Amino acid sequence: MASFSRRRFLAAGGGVSLAVAMSGCSTPIGSSLTGAQPSTADVIFWHLFGGGDGENMATMIETYRESSGTSVESSLLSWGNPFYTKLALSTSSGRPPDVTVAHLSRVPLLAQAELLEPVADQFAAAGITEDKFTPAAWEKATVDGTTYAVPIDTHPFVLYYNTALAEQAGLLENGTLRPMRNSDDFVATLQAMKDSTGNEYAAVASITVDPSTCWRLFLMTYSGLAGPIVEDLGTRVTIDRAAMEESFAFLQSLTGDLGLMPRTATSTTSSTLFSNGEVGFLFDGVWQIPTYRDVEGLDFDVVPFPALLGPEPVAYADSHALIVPASPGRPDERTASAVRFVQGLLDQSSTWADGGHVPAWLPVQESEEFLQLQPQSNYTEAAFNAVYDPPGWYTGAGSDFQTAMGSVVASVLTGATDPAQGVDSMTNSLQTFSTARPPV
Amino acid sequence: MTATALPAPPSGAEVSDRAATAGKPSRPENRAGWLFATPFLVLYLAFLIGPVVIGLLISLFNTTTVRAGVGSWVGLSNYADVLTNADFWASMWHSALFTLLTTPFLVLLPLLFAVLVSRLARGQTFYRLAFFAPYVVPSAAVCLIFAFMYTPQTGLITNAFGWFGLTAPDFFGSTSGAWFAVVLLTVWWTFGFNFILYTAAIQEISEEVYEAALLDGAGPWQQIRMITVPLLRPTIGLVLILQVLSSLKVFDQIYILLAGGPNYSTRPVIQYIFDTGFSTYRGGYAAAATMVYFVVLVVVSVGWFLIRRRNNAANA
């Protein structure tokens, strides 16, 4: 060791780190220091799917990789608020992925903040055009006349029913649930289920510690009567008090006076009750279909909710979409690879539909293959009647807004708050959001 | 966050004393001093002073995390918004409540156990290790394990209540249950740090004092009461302030275990800052909230310093 002095060691170490720094421009570490987008693969893709959806997405990416010979680096990030934080920060600091999944309900803010590449032109050239998508989804992907996202699905809030129990209650017609026209029909159906089974409840929804589900149930009911609760990107509260009070009163009657649903139920309670046949109906999102498909001895089907308080049926929904985050330095060929990748995923929409989602891509949605798919093809209509979160800088999937609104709904459903008070607390809560200084 | 504070650097008084006795250092020595301090100063400027200055600056702008740059000038209106926001004050209260709930346990229990362990004839190293070990486990791991044990119906802790004929609180669904869950976790997890501080202080106490007490006929309990605890008073004071400051900084365990729920009823102020600054992109507003919170922490620290100075003066 005597020949290798400390001075030489330090010099050697310095040389190595300098060499790393010099060659660093092509490595992810180097590019993160120089502020460039990393280029470790032809397409860098972020998504937020775990579980069955994650497996389906992995299959789709693998199939695309093999058929196109393009390299795709796919990262799974945990879903919810942190995902959009990462996306916004990576994009505003100039290091975004090439393609990422986002909920359409989150697109308005991202678009307003100029974090998204307007994609319509490049996609139109590749044959990805408006006429090939579910109109409600395409419309939601469009902000101020510019389309910023390519929807891949619609995942509505729907009505699950236990086929055997519905049969027993005489609620089936031609093997499917007898159509309902309004809230009276709906209540009568639930009552018939309760009478026939003799169980304590007819239906269940996850209410406790699940503000998102409460919010979906509420917005679906309310949207049958009135328009969005906020406008102008969330800065103006446009609550229709009468409609909101009526919606609250109706929902509260289900858990209260009519005793058709439990007023406290966690997601575990609701899945246990429905899986064991202790209730005949479940109100939940289509993404739960894979969960119940695996329950032994449970035969169920899924249909859209009927029109409740308003004249037309409304489905609360959100959509997964593919977006290309803005990156001023992205070379044209990378953008082209991104477009081809998006197209490759759209073509495999039928694999994606396995997770319960309705494909937004009409060539697949109208294909024989999808029409055969049960129960997914039952509720395609819901994708067309979809109502999304109102556009706003604070709204959207997994947002604090949904937590705050859903908590008010939960307290109405448990009976702690009466409908008129519920309207007041929702108005108050919205006041905090709408008067805060918007980030865009 | 838990107590990660390092022992305080030598106070100004000591430094000036030495300078007075040693005389002014010569110029080259002075230069060498600065040179040796450079690595620390660079990091201190880059990661402490720098961010504080940037934070102060952007708290006066409508800075957002969705756009580059500082945004438009808004003056003090971010501060006005923060100070009148009920959610902010609710989260400040949650941080304070957490401090009130955890500090007594984390100051007194480690003292008790440190004294007990110090009186063991054998196996001291084992107990020190056993008590300190949880502290080195990362917060995410601790929270995942506890979340597992708190699970309704199937969790170990939930079932443990049943063994005594009690019904477990709803650890995730009710506010009181959530506080119970997070306090229990925190006490188990961060107990070791204060335990080690006490153990070190106990070892500092001279054996001769105990010998003298023994000769005077003091029993073990009298020794603890009349010698150990009084001689530990400065350490108890140190542990108390370190604990208050680190409890006020609580974030990880509440965020990971409860996400501030149910319905934000346990959300600490740091999570509020994180939620507004990152999740809802309002960087300038969150910076203003941080500054308000920073001022509160400074007031607590200065208050403690003044009280201690007065006590020291009274004792002298």
TrEMBL record, chain A:
PROSITE patterns: PROKAR_LIPOPROTEIN (PS51257), TAT (PS51318). SUPFAM superfamilies: Periplasmic binding protein-like II. Pfam families: SBP_bac_8. GO terms for biological process: maltodextrin transmembrane transport; maltose transport. Gene3D superfamilies: Periplasmic binding protein-like II (3.40.190.10). GO terms for molecular function: maltose binding. GO terms for cellular component: ATP-binding cassette (ABC) transporter complex, substrate-binding subunit-containing. Keywords: Signal, Sugar transport, Transport. PANTHER family: MALTOSE-BINDING PERIPLASMIC PROTEIN, MALTOSE_MALTODEXTRIN-BINDING PERIPLASMIC PROTEIN. Belongs to the bacterial solute-binding protein 1 family. This is Multiple sugar transport system substrate-binding protein. It comes from Geodermatophilus obscurus.
From TrEMBL, chain B:
Its main location: membrane. It comes from the Bacteria. It is a multi-pass membrane protein. One of its GO terms (biological process) is transmembrane transport. Coiled coil: none annotated. Belongs to the binding-protein-dependent transport system permease family. This is Multiple sugar transport system permease protein. Residues 92-304 form the ABC transmembrane type-1 domain. GO terms for cellular component: plasma membrane. It is found in: Cell membrane. It comes from Geodermatophilus obscurus. The keyword DNA-binding does not apply. InterPro entries: ABC_transporter_permease, MetI-like, MetI-like_sf. Residues 1-27 are annotated as: Disordered.
